[in-house]
Amino acid sequence: MKRASGISQRLLRKGALAEETYQIFSQWDFSRSADENLLSGLEGAHGTAAWSNEVRITLARRFRNVDDAGSLIALAKNGLPFPEWQTCLLLWICLHEPLFGDFVSEWLFDKYSEGVMALRSEDVLPYINAYWDQRKPSELSEYGAIRTARDLLRMARDLSLMAGDGVTRTFARAHLSDRCFLYWAHVIAEREGSTARVPTSPLWRYALLRPFDIEHELLRLHQFRQLQYEVAGSLVQLSLPCVSSSEYAERMAA
């Protein structure tokens, strides 16, 4: 999987569209093109044709290389319950959409670790302005910064990292079931190039998991023989159930 090189504000502003994506992926026909699947999946699904078209354009942009989303499609088609599937979508979006993924790993995780209970859009503005100065050549207006901050918190809520419908959002860390934790571990191993790097990978920040949380889960899953995890000083040996995340995705939803 390759991370998107650009920053798409459209994807952020339209949000995660998690329920819409799950519904379309659950009916996905691999013998048809992505455009055909999106059109058939959205037919009659929304109150207006205009909104259906917005959803179609957004998902076509988000999953422009549909092969990268193969495991997400398989999980939805095989009936993985939506709350669990949503945590897999969270990982996918964070890995492929830098604007949101960087926000979670570089800022939101730190606030969570510091014990901050609630956040407002105004709290995010210093991060947004610094981010734009470092990564975007174009200017960002004052209104654009406020809107981006608001959209980041809304996306975090849509993906169950935060809760609340008002101007203030509170933390609600996404819960990873055992099989979703293992799915994340497989994906992270592929990203890091080694299972030994999984326990200390910063990619767990996407789920607001701290090193202690990861260590605890790995030891618990080792105890229940769902993986093998041995630590001797700086030597780490981790064996996962499958050789790839795609294989594990097929197995977990079977």
Write the layout of secondary structure elements.
Blueprint: H1 9-14, H2 18-26, H3 34-42, H4 49-62, H5 70-77, H6 82-96, H7 98-113, E1 118-120, H8 121-135, H9 142-158, E2 162-163, E3 168-171, H10 178-192, H11 211-223, E4 228-232, E5 235-239, H12 245-252
Antiparallel strand pairs: 1-3, 2-3, 4-5
Find the CATH topology of the largest domain: Arc Repressor Mutant, subunit A
Strand-residue proportion: 5-15%
Q: Percentage of helical residues?
A: 55-70%
Shape: globular
Give the averaged pLDDT, no decimals: 92
Rg, Å, rounded: 19 Å
Gross CATH architecture of the largest domain: Orthogonal Bundle
H/E element order = HHHHHHHEHHEEHHEEH
Number of helices: 12
In the sheet with the most strands, the strands line up as 1-3-2
DSSP, total strands:
5
Name the poorly predicted regions: 1-5
What can be said about the biggest beta sheet?
3 strands, antiparallel
CATH class of the largest domain: Mainly Alpha
